[in-house]
Structures are given as structure tokens and as C-alpha cells.
Amino acid sequence: MSVLRQINPNIIALDEKTLEAERRSYHTFFDVHVVETRDGYILIEEGDYGELPMHLIDQIVYTATGKMADEF
After folding, report:
1. Residue 14 burial by CB count (10 A; 0-12/13-18/19+): exposed, middle or buried?
2. In b/e form, how buried is each residue of 32-65, taking b as 16+ CB within 10 angstroms?
3. Which residues contact 41 (CB under 8 A, 6 or more apart)?
4. At the top level of its lineage, which domain of life is listed (predicted)?
5. Using CA atoms, how far apart are residues 8 and 13, in angstroms rounded to an integer?
6. In the prediction, which pLDDT does 5 show?
7. β partners of residue 44
8. Concatenated DSSP letters for the chain?
9. Are 45 and 24 in contact (CB under 8 A)?
10. What is the pTM (predicted TM-score) of this model?
11. What is the Cα–Cα distance from 34 to 5, expressed in whole angstroms?
12. Nearest residue to 10 via CA among 36, 46, 33, 49
């Protein structure tokens, strides 16, 4: 008997946003956060918003550290 597994679309969406955050992190000095919202997941780059409000901090599910550096 084979077992059918259903793929959870929320996990796929999270994986896609995580990969997108990692790709963006190579082109910024700032951390890129994956934030869970009612409608799904969004990316927020700290440089876009300055200090993040607490309600966003509480919804962060993944952070990719900015990988650009000023040092040569």
C-alpha cells in the first residue's frame, strides 16, 4: 500500500521566500527578514524601514544576514 503525501503550500511559500531572502542578502548590507502575515510571507529589508516595530519582529520566521561589506 502506498501512502500519498500532500504538499503543504505554506511550506512551499516559506521555502520560496527563504531562498529569495538569501539571494537578496548578497546585494545588501542589511538583514533580510521573512515575515509571516495573514496573507502569506513577505520580505522586509531592515534598511528599508530602520528600526522594526515589535509587531513585525514577533512575526519574523527567518533572517538572512546581509553579506555585502565595505572592506576591500
Report:
1. middle
2. bbbbbeeeebebbbbeeeeebeeeeeebeebbbe
3. 13, 14, 17, 34, 35, 61
4. Bacteria
5. 9
6. 64
7. 33
8. -----PPPHHHHHHHHHHHHHHHHHTT-SS-EEEEEETTEEEEEEHHHHSSPPHHHHTTEEEEE-----S--
9. yes
10. 0.81
11. 26
12. 36
Nearest to 63 by CA among 2, 28, 22, 6: 22
State the cell numbers at 18.
Answer: 527563504
Cell numbers given for 20? 529569495
**Contact predicate 44/56, CB 8 Å:** yes
